[in-house]
Design a protein that fits this description.
By secondary structure, the protein is mostly helical. Helices cover 78% and strands 0% of the residues. It is globular and about 40 Å long.
């Protein structure tokens, strides 16, 4: 039961973060804010990846068998690891407990994506 709740929460987080990113809000705006200039394209790409990852986690959770899903989740996990590194870098711009909490969330999502990919079983 705990595994089910964990996957639901991660899928909802990814979906919500993706929708927020597509609306120009949320974590991705802050993460890519460390770069100077127009980062709307990066935010949009990250948001779309987040929505896709949320859908893939739901598919994996519901045991819907699509052969390539495990590989796609692994690829998204690698991309998410890059997001986590960028989040850590942006945290150094202004240390704080909120930033640390967000880094923890990113690492939890990364761990969930790695588990969902089934490539490290």
């Amino acid at each position: 039961m705990g595994n089910f709740i964990w996957k639901i929460s991660v899928a909802l987080y990814l979906l919500a973060n993706g929708v927020l990113g597509l609306n120009g809000k949320g974590d991705y705006v802050e993460i890519f804010g460390i770069f100077k200039g127009n980062t709307k394209a990066f935010v949009a790409i990250a948001a779309v990846i987040s929505v896709i990852a949320g859908i893939f986690v739901i598919l994996e959770m519901l045991k819907i068998s699509i052969p390539i899903v495990d590989l796609l989740i692994l690829i998204i996990a690698i991309i998410w690891a890059i997001f986590a590194v960028l989040r850590i870098v942006s945290w150094f711009d202004g240390f704080g407990w909120v930033g640390l909490a967000q880094i923890a969330i990113y690492l939890m999502v990364l761990g969930s994506l790695v588990i969902a990919s089934k490539k490290f079983d």
